[in-house]
Amino acid sequence: MTQPMDETPLLSVxxxxxxxxxxNGRTVHAVEDVSFDIRRGTTVGLVGESGSGxxxxxxxxxxxxxxxxxxxxxxxxxxxALNPREMKDWRKRLQIVFQDPYSSLNPRMRxxxxxxxxxxxxxxxxxxxRRERIAELLTLxxxxxxxxxxxxxxxxxxxxxxxxIARALAVEPDFIVADEPVSALDxxxxxxxxxxxxxxxxxxxxxxxxxxxxxxxxxxxCDEVVVMYLGRVMERxxxxxxxxxxxxPYTKALLAxxxxxxxxxxxxxVPLQGDIPSPINPPSGCVFRTRCPVAIDACAxxxxxxxxxGGNHHVACIxxxxx
Amino acid sequence: MPKLRxxxxxxxxxxDTILSVRDLKTWFVSKRAxxxxxxxxxxxxxxGKTLAVVGESGSGxxxxxxxxxxxxxxxxxIAGGEVLFRDRAEQVHDLAxxxxxxxxxxxxxxxxxxxxxxxTSLNPLYTVGDQIGEMIALxxxxxxxGARAKALEMLKHVEIPDAARRLDEYPHQMSGGMRQRVMIAxxxxxxxxxxIADEPTTALDVTIQAQILDLLQRLQAQFGMSIxxxxxxxxxxxxxxxxxxxxxxGRVVEQAPVNALFAHQTHPYTKGLLACTPDATRDLGTxxxxxALYSIPGSVPPITNLPPGCAFEPRCSMAVDACxxxxxxxxxxxxxxxxxxxxxxxx
Lengths: 323, 347
What we know:
The complex is a heterodimer. Helices cover 28% and strands 22% of the residues of chain A. Chain A is α/β, with parallel strands linked by helices. Chain A has a single domain (9-315), classed as Rossmann fold, CATH 3.40.50.300. Chain A has an eight-stranded mixed β-sheet with strand order 6-7-8-3-9-10-12-11, sandwiched between helices. In chain A, strands 2-1-4-5 form a four-stranded antiparallel β-sheet. Chain B has two domains: 3-110 and 192-346, P-loop containing nucleotide triphosphate hydrolases (Rossmann fold); 122-189, no CATH class. Helix content of chain B is 34%, strand content 23%. Chain B has an eight-stranded mixed β-sheet with strand order 6-7-8-3-9-10-12-11, with helices on both faces. Chains A and B meet through helix 5, helix 6, helix 7 and helix 9 of A and helix 8, helix 9, helix 10, helix 11 and helix 12 of B.
């Protein structure tokens, strides 16, 4: 309550909506009316299960898929309103790191060419200075610069993800979407990449949207968290607050079901029954009500508003006050 | 040679043990290289219990399970060791010596397996009822109607809602969680005494994973089957396992009862694995400041090019010269606990 926002957000997403229309005319409601802010130099985590729309939301913000509606005010400009040519200039400031470090690097290109491609987009001249820049980027992500003439298959998964990060950083972006950057990696390598992302953010003052399904990773890395379910925001707020005092039944369930590496803290029950419904025909009212342990009749009637409940904490549940 | 090893090699299968893997070696030999994917793995699974085999990619955990089931793809072959299995008639077989034909009497009826990705294990062209029924018909003489009735019963056991209607659905009409339930129904339809579950929840979301883990534990209590649970997720291990085997580079590096393992690790690899999983209470200060996560340097070495001594030595902060010279033996490191680390007593 008492803590005002210390800065205007670098990115304000307002009412982001993405519908995919199939050939049979059916509409997939992938992302529906999603709003959140990312303050400069901070990391926001976007969490949810498969089908929650988190990846589509991240890609829509970069216009890698064209959003169906809403705004993304980036440093004062609504980038959804830009024409493709204008957008091209903005892309230098907005980059993405993909989940799968195997399929996101061209196997027939050497590392310097992969990173060089990003430099080309920035109009970086060829020559010694370019080689220097590539060496500098590799050093930045913790790879020996002499690896620049190698091919992707010569690297491990963790090293490839470092290359993917170097490519994203090549154009000196302000903002990075990291789409599940560690979930394809072995556990022993995940920590290295998480530490790297944390260090780079501090060193370069990056602002980051971190998409993940692993709650412990998000809690560790992110200043704020946005919890999505079936295309909608269920709860968002400062990570510490949301993890310590989740207010939405879905957030509570997610936190209760995540397995903990401690056999003395075993779960006692499964709070959520059933599966995530189809986004082609989402439930009326609150999309979570079909699996919600505390749903009442009223939940089917209206889409719950995203209520501000103090600090920067928001929750979309009509029963949040009584539970 | 430590005493433990001699005992294991000479003892017969204890009455409470359903599966005993002893010095199992599974090699993939090609002209260019020999990949010792499993190199001298030993463990016991007690009747009605769950043994978790934990490891990262390339640790040999999946090849171990495929070796037990006789499902190795060429050029993989069992190069040594025993896989002793006690069947329902209390007969002990060495599955390592089995011909492909002999496995038919064991697979499905005595040992069943579920895999990570249920979609690729189900035939998209048949209804789930037909597929479960086929399994039942193959292993019993109940007839078509009987098989269908039993298939329905199994779908109810795995708590598929509206089971009678689901029986006539195709795999693509089901969610990932439902398909894994179908796989479990099929695996348990002939009441096997051993279920091998190879990363059965890895492709599933956490809320669905919790459902499947609960289901497996309930079914274990109901049917009394033993479970060999292959996973990379230590959280899942803590939840389902009674005993744990940690693998690295094709070998067992640590073995312990689940509570002992999580309370105190006797191998630097296990300790490192646990330490590099983010934990907010440990890794965030009271002011929310992030501490750097503990990380294991380097990456998992390729199985064709393991160091001569301890496979973990190049990444280990405790490594000394002796670690490089010879393969450390698996030595007792506590009650029912074994470690393949010469410095385990210092941990």
